[in-house]
Amino acid sequence: MRTQVAIIGGGPAGLLLSHLLHLWGIDSVVLESRDREYVEHRQRAGMLEQGTTDVLRESGVGERLDREGLVHHGLELRFGGAGHRVPLTDLTGRTVTVYAQTEIVKDLVARRLADGGDVRFEAEVVSLDASAPAVTFRSGGRTHTLDCDYIAGCDGFHGVSRPAVPGLRTFSRDYPFAWLGILADVPPSTEELIYANHDRGFALHSLRSPHVSRLYLQVSPDEDLAAWSDARIWDELAARFATDDGWKLHDGPITDRSVTPMRSFVAEPMRHDRLFLAGDAAHIVPPTGAKGLNLAVSDVIILARALAERYASGSRTLLDGYSDACLRRVWRAEHFSYWMTTLLHVDPHATDFERRLQRSHLDYVASSDAAKASLAENYAGLPIF
Ligand code: FAD
Ligand code: DHB
Fold first, then answer.
1. Does residue 272 have an active-site annotation?
2. Which residues does the UniProt record annotate as the domain FAD-binding (predicted)?
């Protein structure tokens, strides 16, 4: 079995790469270890930068995004019992869009299959050779080999690609908290996202549709989900979002819940020979800055363009610059995600001095146009090229 580009992982990175390569006339096979139902329903990201929505739209998979995506022009920082708006569009000229990762994955799977693409679910890659490029995978109880020109490692943080890069340098930071995320059948209590800092911990109010809310609570990293009844979750959210003017959080049936650890991680370089890492396979950010999916998309745009140049002209210049081009953007997003996380969460180990500094930092961001502009520029997303 042979293809031009073997793609390991059918998350947003792998599926979008396969779609973009197809538009450039380049063949690929996507190998995804889980089943279709699982990847289409795994609740994760929701906030898309304009660069992400632009590429989905321009590559012809933006039809449902345009119909159902919720365009946002600002966000709220809430602390000390009051809200402070950051007018993203006024400050940057750009918008952000709420459209769930599950929906992007559904759109991309449907489009790849409609275009005759080769996307294999329940196909787990067990080994790969980055020099005589090939991947070995298990599917239907048998072992297969897929020969190729290039391998794209889009298999997320726990995949097989990153360990196949020798001499990798890694950088990481673990945080002393996690997020408990819920999906609830209740109209959002807000039009714009609310990022709240409270002595009890961070909380985020996001949304999925006019009828479905998505909310997150800072919890401890070893939190037992079973200890959180629906009533306890809603009470805690209400306490952390409370304002002096009596703002009200609406509650409703919770349809999904999970706990996610928070981590910063970067692996350098993002390439070994003919293997290219993209997305969570190469880097992780804590979700506070809403950057993970957007970074996966920008890696893939850079990789698709580099492969297209290689096949069209024989030039390896863009492929050789791939890792550096991605890492510049990755480190900016790493810093912003760390910054937003530190600004908004309660560090259980912080000294009183550090807590006062954090409050001063929040006051500064809320009151300074320059600080808001910096937050907005990073949140709405910096240019890809
Ligand atoms: P993944 O989505 O992890 O996909 C990798 C795929 O590879 C998986 O389907 C996996 O099954 C498959 N795989 C693994 N190993 C193998 C193997 N050996 N063989 C074959 N297949 C394999 N990002 C944002 O931009 N905005 C947000 O608002 C945001 N919010 C988030 C909220 C939460 C709670 C979480 C957890 C994440 C959030 N993120 C957000 C991050 C975002 O979800 C990830 O960065 C994104 O999923 C990365 O996509 P990916 O394709 O690189 O990796
Ligand atoms: C969502 C997740 C985030 O991490 C974030 O910063 C904003 C929104 C969401 O799931 O909607």
1. no
2. 2-337
Residue (of 112, 134, 131, 130) closest to 121 by Cα position: 112
Nearest one of 61, 70, 69 to 106, comparing CA atoms: 61
Task: Show the domains of the chain with their CATH numbers.
Answer: 5-70+98-170+263-347 (3.50.50.60)
Q: Is 175 a catalytic residue?
A: no
Give SS3 for 7: strand
Buried/exposed 23-57: b ≥16 CB within 10 Å, e otherwise: eeebebbbbbbbebeebbeebbbbbbbbbbbbbbe
285 lines ligand 2 (CB under 6 A): no
Tell me if 270 sits within 8 A of 299, measured CB to CB: yes
Query: Does residue 379 carry a catalytic annotation?
Result: yes
Query: What is the complex's ipTM, to 2 decimals?
Result: 0.95
> Where are the alpha helices (H) located in 142-256, listed in sequence order?
230-241
Which of 19, 272, 283, 291 is flagged as catalytic? 291
pLDDT at 384 over 90: no
Regarding the beta carbon of 102 and ligand 2, being less than 6 Å apart is answered no
Q: What is the CB-side half-sphere exposure of residue 291 using CA atoms within 13 A?
A: 32
The pair of structure tokens assigned to 53 is 């929505």
pTM, two decimals, is 0.97
